[in-house]
Amino acid sequence: MLLGVLLLSGHAQTLIQGTITYISKDNAYMDMGKKKGVAIGDTIEVYRADKLLGQAIVSQTSGSSSALRLMDSLSIGWQIGDRVLMTLEESVPQLNAQSDAVDSIQTDTPPRIVTLDSLAFQARQPTQTELKGNRFLPNFSGYLSARVDDRGGDPESPRRTSSSIYGQFQMLDLGIKHLDASVYFRGGKSSQDSVFDSQIYSIMFEYKKPGSPFDLSFGRIYHHMFSTLGSVDGIGLSWRLGQFTLGMLGGTVPSNDVYPDMVKRRRLGVMGQEQFSWGDVMLGMNAEITPDGLSRNYLASEASYRAFRSFRVRVQGEFDLDIQDQSPTQSLISLTRFSSSLNGRLGRHFISNLRYSYRENVLDLLDTAETEYDLAARHSANGSVSWYHPSGINLSTQASFRTDGDGKTIQTYGLTLNKRDLGAWDLDMMSGIMAMNSHLSQGGRIYLSVSRRVLPWLDMDIYDEIFAYRILGDDLTRVRHLPELSLKAKLPYVERIRLRTRFEQEDGVTFYRVSLSISRQF
After folding, report:
1. Homologous superfamily of the 2-103 domain (CATH)
2. The pTM is what?
3. What is the sign of the dihedral through the CA atoms of 321, 325, 327 and 332?
4. 428: which strand partners?
5. Does the structure show a pLDDT above 50 at 118?
6. Domain boundaries in the chain?
7. What single-letter DSSP state applies at residue 242?
8. Which one of 213, 367, 434, 454 is most buried, counting C-beta atoms within 10 A?
9. What is the rounded distance in angstroms from the CA atom of residue 424 to the CA atom of residue 493?
10. What is the mean pLDDT of residues 104-133?
11. Is 61 exposed, middle or buried, given 0-12, 13-18 or 19+ CB atoms closer than 10 A?
12. Which of 4, 28, 32 minimizes the C-alpha distance to 77?
């Protein structure tokens, strides 16, 4: 019966299947994109072990991958390896049958014999997907943003104006089928600078053929399996076999404007990742080498575990292996980075997040002949508990602690309240209070933000903050008043225009900051 209705309505459905390949803070990513007919706004179903977890919306898409956004932030705790299913609809020839001849109960009626002649022919209707005939030709997408800032009001410092531009561009099937290119860049100039400073963060080429276990990337690349290595000018390769993924990366660290004299480094890495029903495990080796032979070898590991269907534990560690015995103060193996997190849902309306991290201060290790393990380590811990109510109320508490292990600490505590669609004007309100205590100062702030869509194309946001602080050793308490007005507009040919005006009042002096930003998505 269902098949008959679909045929008579002129639509057929094709089910396509993929997997979650990466998870970020706000999105998940799957291995299906425009080449399979995925479009922004499509609905995706997420499964684990044949159990439906929930639905997601496609927020971004490229040739072979797409970003997913949850339809309900409380509904899915997705993991890498979860199955994603999507139904594509396409038109098919409608049957020349009268409605009174359709009877789902009479299943033993012999089929009609149809003579295929020119009078019975119907042309195939175009599909409702994005699978166009020229889909393998190069196409351009991305965004471009420009911003101008003006600061002044301080009689003891000059007025400063700055401008910046940044963007991301992608081209699919760059002359070769399944070969995509992407560019990330940023540039800026201040009134106090004489030249326009620009930097290309990434020029990456990716070859991803649907159905192939191999992915190749080269150029200035960033590989998600080697997050601690950052970007390199080199080549990366991924090979998938069932639930196992092997990644390899090699290249040179790009030059850095912040550390122009930093020694040139080469970075190499091999990582393996295995997906299980309860989580995943990643293990590998990374290395850094300088021209004079000084090197560091890392043993990297990461694991996640899902417990009680609502909690997820993730642990990440990095160990420095002094294989060549170059450090007189370090043992054969030393912990350089460690982090752990616990995320979970308590009941239907509570979400909790806990995180602890440890990092050894070895930023400039390769620039010196001696290691810097004598310096203190850095510990940080933070946590939050949020309560969500169907009426649109969200109450969240936060706390964080950070120390360098040598008496220098920073503690912060906060409480935030959000309410959507408040009152007859449908206002969105956010308010909060925060307290801070450190080895340098003590203080706190209270703030309130109210936003509303005043026109179909214009949003207005009013923000006000009072910040009080006292520097340790000084009996004077200083108070700052920070009001702000922000307007955001959507106009033809422009994705967003934002005008932001902020004032800062302290000790009878008023400073100001005016910024205008324009962004366009292609």
Report:
1. Rod shape-determining protein MreC, domain 1 (2.40.10.340)
2. 0.65
3. positive
4. 451
5. no
6. 2-103, 396-522
7. T
8. 434
9. 32
10. 44
11. buried
12. 28
